[in-house]
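## Example pair
The file below holds two records. Each record gives the amino-acid sequence first, followed by its structure token line.
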Amino acid sequence: MPRRKAADRAGQVKTRSRSGCRECRASRVRCDAQRPICTRCREKGLPCSTNLVLKWESEFVSRGMAFGRTGVWSKNRSDSSPSSTATSAGSSPGSSVDDTRQWCSLPGVESWAFINTGMASFEDRRRFDVNLNRQRAIDPRIKSRAKVMPVGAWNLGPSSAPSAFPGRLGLENPELFDYFFRQLCPRATASPSSSSPFASVVLPFSTSATPTLFKAIEALSACHWAQRDPKYSTVGLRLKTETLRDLRRRLASQELVKSYTDPEILLIMMMLCLYEIMDKCDERWTVHLKGAKDLIRLRRERVGTPSDPVTRLAERFFAFQDVMGRTACGEAIVFGNDYWSSRDQKIDLWMGCSTELAGILSMITEMSRARRLSGSIQTTPLFLSRAASLQRQLEHLVQEVEGGDDNILSCVAEAKRLAALLYLHCALHGAAPSTAVVVDYVHQILCLVSSLLDFGSMANVMWPIFVAGVELDPSRDELYLESDGPGVSGRSVILRALDAMADSSISNVSRTRGVIIEVWQARDQDLLKPPKSEVNDWDRYVAPVSSSMSLA
């Protein structure tokens, strides 16, 4: 008996089920789409699967087949319907596609690209702690712009030149000491054209030092070298362990007065502190910070202000690490404001700013901490008066380059001054990324960062990049770095700068990048939520994820 035509059938015409299982589709049988297993598969004992199958149009075109239902045929087609016209024998199956369709070009994905994923990414922040310090190809745009950088200053490996210290005291790993001299010392200054304090202070002192200091220096070199060659990771860990063992024995065996007056002990602690910062940048580096503070306090109480350059360098190193790290998390102060001179406007080569700026930052952090602990202090006249006074100091602060002009050093110092103003408005006045003054300061800082990228020098700008990164408005990410130039993504500028910094600084770029990305994700997640005006923006997004950070 012939089948009835569609026009003679009673009731609704049955069509294909788009949610049917693969087994029913393969057998060309209608699936009732029951879950978790359809009726036919249950009765026949078949594995009912509804996995998504991806089909590519190019593959169908190459086989001469129609791709999906793109106007090739239809069950209820009529001869007058344009969409039901069958493809002629001589035409391509894809010719029915609308010729006016335009395909968007895929954007280029760089090594520093940021992709905000789903909710699962907020559960484990470590998955975004991408280690930028590992070996990778250098961005040719950054490499080609290294105009003023000395040849060989930022090489990725040890120099092939003859050792500068042949047979020095019978060192077990002389190549590590050479690595410190050739690779780490140039990275310890904010400008490659300026002299390094490590080279001018540490190296001369080490000529008469004990083997323990050499082990500390070699451990630091091995930790930094392991970022490109993992085999040095074990060497660095062994040398660090031996240094800690020798230091404990030394402190336990000698008199206390000899411990706090010996500059070599502070220098050993300084190298161990840098090792922990470059390795993990967790709370372990703060152990050396607090231990050094006890020795420095005893020396200042019983001897006074140090006069030798090694002790002065070590004191400034630890005090500056304390100041910059506390700006992120607002923890209790370790080194007080008496380590900074309010009248010294000269830019320190290692700090990249003046001691006056460091003292102002310390006072801002203390006021922010007092505001957070008390809650109501923010509206008192005394608090507002002190905040306004610090703001005026920063606005009129002059930072001088000692011994001539240095555009890179001046640019770094100015970026830190602007970042200090941005930090003041956020930490003391509760400003948010959408606040006009924050948008303006972020734009100015990123313009300076872009200039430093053009110079090819990104040492000692970790803190300005961090402050601008965590306060970047996600809804106004596009920046115009040039008056007549195209707009660029602010996030791409920050990530590209961090990528370049991994090759030109002694710091843990990975930890900083991980915190910035976590703040970006939290802000993106809260874009559609009403703002919580009673919560300080810095306390809500930055401080909870910034414990034990090193931003010096």
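Second record, same layout:
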Amino acid sequence: MFNGHQRSIIQRLLSSSSSSTTTNYVLNEPNEPKIITNEIPGPKSRKLIDDLNKIQNAGAIQLFVDYEKSIGNYLVDVDGNTYLDIYSQISSIPLGYNHPALIEAVKDPKNISSFINRPALGILPPKTFNDQLHSALLSIAPKGLNEIQTMACGSCSVENALKGKNSQPYHYHFFPNLIGSIFFFCRSKIIYPVVCFYYRTWQRGQPPTEEDMRTCMTNEQPGSPKLSIMSFMGGFHGRTFGALSCTHSKAIHKVDIPAFDWPIANFPRYKYPLNDYLDYNQREDDRCLTMVEDLIEKYSHNGKPVAGMIIEPIQSEGGDYHGSKYFFQQLRKICTKYNVAMVIDEVQTGGGPTGKYWAHEHFEMEQPPDIVTFSKKMLIGGFYYRPMFRPDKPYRIFNTWLGDPSKLLLLDQVVKVVRKENLLKRIEETGDYLLKHLEQIQNQYPSILMNARGLGTFCAIDFSTPELRDQAIRKLHQNGVHCGGSGTATLRFRTTLTFENRHVDQFVERFDRTLRSLSKQ
């Protein structure tokens, strides 16, 4: 299964770690990055890219990676170059490469069945499934969200999350769901979930008519009602059809694809440093909040009521734009006021990189969001939801796999390591250290850098032009830092949860070297 080099790494990792709850795992990382080829990508990577391009479009491929040799926060490519990785597979590696806790989970004989048998979880879950959900997922659930649905990836998590609609505990009120498939009947303080079929039965006083059954099959009214989902300019929620209608980060994601006529609100665009522009940023929050209410009322008037909104705590792909605590608190109140379901998309921010498991917890909203989607660092996709969002009929939320139990095994180990080593506190401290250095270095290069910002190590900094940002990324690769951008001119940081101050120091030295070369051009 493993080659000689990988076996030696694994043996070294396991010999340096202990399953004891009192001993932290030790990552035998390289001392520093090391680049040995004259060009990036190197000749072996370029050859593999050319070969791949013969059978698919390989234009997005940066490098071919030797994952057996990669360790911790260091990525090794097929040419033998070692990079400090601040990108972590687009924010999806929680503990670093080849972490001993995950290796132990894979090697444990009692876990073999989970790795070789992938069940259709919706109909035939394994006997350990309930315990895994509690241990790996519900133990870290966002406050107020006590139910869970697993999925395979971020896009399908969002897509299925957009099918649920909450209803407040008013007397005898009905509210349509996000897409129009689930409705909830509320009576007094008891909430009775029912599907659209029963809502329409109540409305008509009889079962669905022949017209209802016929028109729903051709996506027409009255069988398919007109409803809308609000999203925000700059947001990214996936590339499936419904999620893509809520995505507004890059044109290449959307061009040529039909989209729903759904409302798109502005997300705040702040001036930095924040403390120097308090009045401006407050007005920006209020402007966006006013637009949200105006769109809700406009679409209701036009016969396409806004049943829900989806929003990221930090607009990750769109350019690492932040919203303030005030903005999200008021947004939650607007959702409650208009009975709009609030869906927080934590696919990229969830799992700890902001110093909390869930970035929206920084906002201290009076009510929790109605649904929180996740994937990436959580190793499995899915969404948490408030109890009133549970569909009362099977197959409403369904696909063949609904995730993968082997990923729950790995996530369970991640959660244990995070707790044992207090990694969320560490990532908060490392993030403060990183942001302080980003602010210092932007002061050294004011003509190149601006707008340093972040929560935890989920940080970003803007370049004065897209061209400079792209040049910086290429030079950082050459200087031994694997990284990536967001938006048009932003360098983003997506570190593992084991990223430490010493890694920050290595990055800062190479970033300064990169900026000096750019400033001489």
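Notes on the second record: Residues 354 and 393 are 37 Å apart (CA to CA). The longest strand covers residues 449-455.
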